[in-house]
What we know:
Number of domains of chain A: 1
CATH superfamily of chain A: Tetracycline Repressor, domain 2
CATH topology of chain A: Tetracycline Repressor, domain 2
Number of helices of chain A: 12
Oligomer: homodimer
Distance between the termini of chain A: 28 Å
Amino acid sequence: MPEDFERFKAGLSLSRDDIYSALLQENHHHIRIKKPAVAIQGLASIVEATLRLAGSKGFHAMSLRDLCAESGFSIGGIYAYIKNKEDLIHLIQDYGFLLTRRTLRTRTQDAAPGVEKLRAAVRTHLFLSEMMPDWFSFSFMEARHLPPPERQKAVQAAREIEDIFFDILQEGMAAGAFRHVDARLLASLTKALMQDWYLKRSKYRRQEIDVNTYAQSVCDLLESYLQGPP
Amino acid sequence: MPEDFERFKAGLSLSRDDIYSALLQENHHHIRIKKPAVAIQGLASIVEATLRLAGSKGFHAMSLRDLCAESGFSIGGIYAYIKNKEDLIHLIQDYGFLLTRRTLRTRTQDAAPGVEKLRAAVRTHLFLSEMMPDWFSFSFMEARHLPPPERQKAVQAAREIEDIFFDILQEGMAAGAFRHVDARLLASLTKALMQDWYLKRSKYRRQEIDVNTYAQSVCDLLESYLQGPP
DNA sequence: GTCTATAGCATGATAGAC
DNA sequence: GTCTATCATGCTATAGAC
């Protein structure tokens, strides 16, 4: 029985505080605020305001003054949380990759190899992006314009996500559940389909397609290919 | 016999001058240069330099000084071709949409309904993006951050491209060449697969996957779905 | 038609009061 | 810990020489 999005969300049980206290721990060296409760609250405002603005006008077009107006901070206050504007990118990137990778691996490892595992991975990825679409879209849009070392890290993280799909495909082929195809290429195509869900969110909303329907269609498409005639 | 990319490129026979004189005609009201030969040459330099820079560092991160250095113009000289920086976006957008729509329709209309027509459309779209990947990726990245009226135009153009695939799917279903599926949703998924080719170009190059191989895989994936069991 | 010089402004970042 | 005031810089866009 396929798990649907509402059950997924309830099962994740990641509160806002959990998320931002993890984010604080990863970046505490840059942050001058000492009281954790204050820092967590401030981080949450700043990150969420950044994602909103970057989503609507783009990260580079967003000024720190825009960010202040949106987050409620003053121009000086922001600099207690970040070293500079570029630092905002890392703040947001690091955290999301960690969460995505971990959840994807955890949620697929118990499923049986083959169709079941592939479905679990597709659903989990789509559900994650449904939970934080602004982060996924930010990460996709900004990664290509990072300075080379940071960019390399982002490429590596994206590759790891793709590898999860690759491994599932290979395992399924080895187990005889799938026919033999180019697993690397099909993993790329699968990821492309995952991306469209968060990159074209408003289009799908306008067409009244929800995440469960989308997940089902992607699974059907992949499965008919993997189980077709050799 | 599937047409491959080299034959497609030769068959298009669109010279650089053809392209930029069409672009000049569409935007002659903004452009202060009187001699067509000069204007065409200037436009070509500016558009190509913009696409290069926007592709590497992003349009908003690119300053007009960067553009001058890259295009060989002076800061004042640029303003004989454009009204302001935002005008550069329209200059580039208009032209590409026109070319893409026209080529896609022309190249698919003679093919037989069903698999053959679908393949022609997939190949044509991929080949077009292979010819001007910087334009496709620019258009994808910038469209979401345009001011509302211009954004609407871009959304509309993207929708028309998707409709071409939609029509082909519906026609094929009506003719009995395909089984009955949600054609609107499958057209969206198809477009998502088209997009990945130009958005993740360097990844595919690293994997030594060329455009013909990619086109073949996308067609196989779609066809197995459209011809699978009802 | 293209250049140089510069106006006018918005931005990222800092210093220091509270 | 957060604010206001301010600096230096780099930007878009224009004016006017050639």
